[in-house]
Design brief:
The protein has 8 helices and 9 strands. It is an alpha/beta fold and 247 residues long.
Length: 247
């Protein structure tokens, strides 16, 4: 019979307990509290396709910003832009405007589209900065489209004194713009990336020249109080929207 109170047995049991405690320590540490998720601001983007919007309800749903369609090409202006911007502002939601690009090979097309956009947008100090929505290439090759995008951005900068936000998807930027970092490195550092159904977006152009994404459109069919049907859902990487305001 083993005598548990024997000095040698007690010493052996103590050593075994120390070994087990040391082995369990990393497991206990791994089961500790998880890092808190980074706080983000939630928002949407919208156009005439969403119909009449109750902006008070949208604000009540926790949406803090909205990008609204202003124009497309050189001749189309979204008929709901002005009323939606006013409604969003009155509800305390930061509003901005985007231009849906229709690039083509016509001389001066990028500049013409930029001027049409700025004329229709009439930015105010508390608006979000202008946005170029580039998701079709209009038949342009990589080099020509790169030049078109830079031309549009530079003209908006010349007219407004503000560097526009670029909206695109990872695949479009890679396939149609050659995954270039030149736009980001030219000072257009704010990326609004469209990548749905993933837990984290893929960021093109070498993590956008090292700047990463600032806004992420993570769903193209979300449900938000105050809006009938689907609406795009977005989040900002930070709760502080002040770096992205026009003023």
């Amino acid at each position: 019979m083993i005598r548990l109170n024997h000095p040698s047995v007690r010493l052996l049991l103590l050593l075994m307990a120390l070994v087990l405690t040391a082995a369990a320590a990393p497991v206990a540490q791994a089961r500790g509290p998880k890092p808190k998720p980074i706080a983000t601001a939630q928002g949407i983007d919208a156009s005439h396709w969403q119909g009449t919007i109750n902006w008070t309800q949208v604000a009540g749903a926790g949406k803090r910003f909205v990008f609204l369609k202003v124009s497309e090409g050189t001749s189309y202006t979204d008929p709901t832009f002005s009323s939606n911007r006013l409604g969003a502002r009155n509800a305390g939601i930061a509003a901005g405007g985007y231009h849906f690009a229709r690039p083509d090979a016509t001389t001066g097309d990028a500049v013409a589209e930029a001027r049409a956009f700025v004329a229709a947008a009439t930015f105010a100090s508390n608006d979000l900065r202008p946005v170029l929505d580039i998701e079709v290439n209009g038949g342009l090759g990589v080099a020509a489209l790169q030049s078109w995008v830079r031309g549009w951005l530079d003209e908006v900068y010349r007219l407004t004194g503000r560097r526009a936000i670029v909206y695109t998807s990872p695949s479009f930027w890679k396939n149609s713009l050659g995954d270039t970092q030149a736009i980001a490195l030219a000072g257009y550092t704010t990326l609004w990336i469209a990548h749905w159904g993933v837990t984290s977006p893929t960021v093109p152009a070498g993590n956008w020249g090292g700047y990463g994404w600032s806004f992420w459109q993570y769903s193209n069919c979300g449900s938000v109080s105050g809006i009938s049907g689907c609406v795009d859902l977005d989040r900002a990487k930070s709760t502080d929207l002040s770096p992205f305001l026009f003023g």
